[in-house]
Design brief:
With 387 residues, the chain is an alpha/beta fold. The chain has 2 domains: 125 residues, no CATH class; 252 residues, Vaccinia Virus protein VP39 (Rossmann fold), CATH 3.40.50. The chain has 12 helices and 15 strands. It starts with 6 loop residues before the first helix and ends with a helix. Bound molecules: S-adenosylmethionine.
């Protein structure tokens, strides 16, 4: 499609530039690329060394991300970029625009008129543009020895391209922990990471409590995979992370020997998240932070006539079941005396699995209220399963 002039694309370029100039542009997501080795690209306004620029980030199929700042004649540059994608979504404070190009070359542009109307009204709010200095705001910098040894950063502390998303993920997770510090002990803490996998998060959390907050930490990490557990145990020894213990086994059968102050879990597969939440609440954890992974159970067992109008569309069915599952999980935790929230772990651009379930044990509970919540939980389950 390169170099073929297009009126729809011209209009799109003009309105994107106007949004950018009025600082109303949040991002442009470019998908369905012509290049087979690419997944997608994202254009984001950034402030780099006090200059307001448009940055293009391209994600390739071999898990690499490339960045470049748009220079020169913006309209020509944008047109050249846009011509290589069949779907373009513009997100702005003036509204959203969608551009699509079919295989036969038919183009559709939706939402442009509304956005133009907003721009003309002069009532568009400006976006706080992202800065390339966001790194220094993170709790982890990349220079930490454990990140280098885990291969997240290189010897100079630069985050490796394919580990950028993981780095942001663990940083954000640690930020969530920081936000509940007043609910946790301040001197000595017992932390469990259930379904720890390669334990990027566990090492980060241990480092945060031990080296940043200078606390006494007992960190216990459990996973089914023997090779991964062996690798992590050896790494903990090499790092001198003495109070880290790695256990190979099924979390269902695992018995917590220390009182859990904090239970964390990142992307425990399917019902493993439910096992984590049950184990943590049964053992009276003070705080539970869990980001679920894919979930299939309810998708297979849902049997609810009232929701058939959603469930008959397979994609919507999965999204609805994901939301219902997480809401049910929170309702169950609430009925066990926790204050609960569903938060966003990270930008959905990084991973769609970005819901953070947060549960904080209440100091005082109303037993009658808990009883009602338990009834509500059971009723909701029966309603969804058609029992
Ligand atoms: C998607 S990985 C996530 C790993 C890690 N938390 C992360 O985010 O990088 C899910 C992990 O859960 C573990 N797992 C699944 N079910 C489990 C169970 N019942 N007991 C222990 N580990 C389990 C798997 O072995 C796998 O390492």
């Amino acid at each position: 499609m390169k170099n073929v002039k297009s009126e729809a694309r011209d209009r799109l370029c003009t309105v994107v530039l106007e949004l950018y100039e009025q600082k109303a542009l949040k991002k442009v997501v470019l998908s369905k690329p012509d290049a087979s080795d690419e997944i997608k690209s994202v254009l984001t306004p950034m402030t780099i060394s006090q200059n307001y620029v448009l940055q293009l980030e391209t994600f390739s199929r071999d898990n690499k991300a490339f960045h470049r700042n748009i220079k020169g004649e913006y309209d020509k540059e944008l047109d050249a970029i846009f011509s290589s994608y069949s779907q373009i979504n513009v997100v702005s404070t003036a509204g959203d625009i969608q551009y699509m190009r079919s295989k036969g070359g038919k183009e559709t542009l939706l939402g442009e008129a509304k956005v133009r109307g907003q721009l003309a009204s002069g009532k568009v709010t400006a976006v706080q543009s992202k800065s390339n200095n966001t790194k220094k705001n993170y709790i982890l910098s990349g220079n930490e020895d454990f990140l280098k040894k885990l291969g997240v950063s290189d010897e100079s502390g630069r985050i490796r391209d394919k580990m950028q998303a993981k780095f942001r993920q663990i940083n954000k997770f640690v930020e969530h922990i920081e936000s509940v510090r007043d609910k946790l002990p301040s001197k000595s803490i017992n932390v469990y990471d259930l379904c720890c996998g390669k334990s990027y998060l566990s090492f980060a959390v241990y480092h945060y409590f031990k080296n940043v907050l200078k606390m006494d930490v007992n960190m216990i990490c459990v996973d089914l995979k023997a090779d991964v557990i062996e690798y992590c145990s050896n790494l903990a020894v090499r790092l001198g992370f003495e109070q880290m213990e790695f256990v190979c086994g099924d979390i269902m059968a695992y018995e917590m020997k220390l009182k859990p102050h904090l239970v964390i879990s990142l992307h425990a597969c399917d019902i493993a998240t439910d096992i984590v939440l049950n184990k943590a609440s049964e053992n009276g954890a003070d705080v539970i932070l869990s980001t679920p992974c894919c979930h299939h159970e309810l998708n297979h067992t849902l049997n609810c006539e009232t929701l058939d109008f959603v469930a008959r569309h397979s994609m919507l069915r999965q999204k609805m079941c994901d939301a219902l599952t997480d809401a049910l999980r929170l309702l169950r935790l609430e009925s066990c005396g926790y204050k609960v929230d569903a938060l966003e772990l990270i930008d959905p651009e990084d991973t769609p699995k970005n819901i953070m379930l947060r549960a904080i044990k209440k100091k005082r509970v109303d037993e009658a209220e808990l009883k009602q919540l338990k009834i509500k939980y059971e009723q909701t389950k029966r309603f969804l399963l058609g029992e």
